[in-house]
Amino acid sequence: MGLLNTLLNNGGGSSNDASYTTAFTNETSPLNITHNLGKRPSVVVIDENEEEVVVDLDYDAAGDSLNVVTLIFSGTLTGRVICN
Questions:
Q1: What predicted TM-score, i.e. pTM, was given to this entire model?
Q2: How confident is the model at residue 8, as a pLDDT?
């Protein structure tokens, strides 16, 4: 959890690198996340129990690979996503 806590507390990478965090509740797959970072960011998904969740990522599903990432997972999910 050390790296994850560092990312959460410091907003991601270097001070010149933008990041985006958003919360969601009871979402089903696929879930489009519009981050507007102008890049294909790394993505971390944290559930309501503060556990990292492994999801599939699709950067091209929404037609805007630099500003939207689609999360693909089974069931419903509540938590937050961190894009960096």
A1: 0.77
A2: 53
